[in-house]
Design brief:
- The chain has a five-stranded parallel β-sheet with strand order 2-1-3-4-5, with helices on both faces.
- The chain has eleven helices and five strands; from the N terminus they run βαβααβαβαβαααααα.
- With 408 residues, the chain is α/β, with parallel strands linked by helices.
- It folds into two domains: 189 residues, Rossmann fold (3-Layer(aba) Sandwich); 184 residues, Glutathione S-transferase Yfyf (Class Pi), Chain A, domain 2 (Up-down Bundle), CATH 1.20.1050.
- The two termini are 43 Å apart.
Length: 408
Amino acid sequence: MPRIETVFRLFVASPSDVAEERSIVDEVVNEMNLTWSKHFRVRVETVRWETHAFPAIGEDAQSVINRQIDDEYDIFLGVLWTRFGKPTLRYGSGTVEEFERAYVRYEAEPSAIRIMFYFKTAPVDPYTLDPEQLKRIGAFRSRLGEKGALYWNFSSREEFATLLRLHLSRQVQELAELAETTGAGKLLENARLALGSSSPDAPESDGSDEEAGLLDLVQQGVSGFESMTEVITELAFGMSAFNTRVLERTKEFELASANAGADPRPLWRAAKAFADDTEAFAARIDQLRPAFASASEATFASLSGAVALSTDFDAADATLRELLANLHVLNAANDETQGMLTGFRDAVTNQPRISAPVNRAKRRLSEALGAFLDEFNRSLNLGRAVEHEIQELIGGWGETSPEESTEP
């Protein structure tokens, strides 16, 4: 049966070094369209110069793209990493020119366009870096702040995909609400009635391939919380046990040092034992890190999906309010854990340089803690993002909820 949908166009602006992120945008949009189209009769169409421009002649290549795209989009999404891009006749790069055109539209009519910008912070081979390109990216990022633009950083594929699900869901929700209030929603409803399809819901599935609903996604998220907590708890026990071993080895050092003049072998044995303990703990942290990363990825993929479905429910539904309360507690606890991990790593780094094996083991443990902290910080960033988006939804419903984080 014919269906009437509201289509919002998403324009992606980025240099060549973030091709993977452009693919992720397509993946997330296709994934979310399954939900939006079925439940809300809304769909997002991705617009890129690679797919929506064709060979032609103009003042320069960017002017051809500008003319053919013609600013006919509702959401602007920009991504930068290490490449600023090639200059145009008017701006420092094509990406910047596309942003400036979008920003002019925003200044003229803020409700006409949504602007989203992301910066990739993943490490890269330093021999491939162009310092001038990085300098220009830094200057542009500063200008974004001066324009009042809130941008987000990400360091992994999974983090970008989850942030995009969250933020794009919110943008589409606001655009859909705007369409309703401006009368477009009534026009769509009249068209549905004329076509004999007055129900806003898609035909029911036979259940054989039913996708997860809000409660399923929230439950998956809660299960993920538990898995993440288990890993952190095991890490905390490991840190406590390691501290106990350090105290024991310190006593052995003191005893061996007192007799080192007569026989230095006990001192070397104590140093080797300490190095072995340190290496073993570093290896255990390396084992825990992928388990935490996997749990975090699954958790926030589920919760970002729940946010996308949340507009199907009204303020009487307590599911998201309960989730927000739990997430607020989790994020507060993770803030403390972050400080604990950072302090522990610093303490390891600042231990005295006793011997070559001990120094190697210390460096190994410091690197393992640093890698775990990177993964933990990504998870903390996503937790804050999910909390913020749910807070915005509930705030829109006029409900009282925990104080939101002010950091992205």
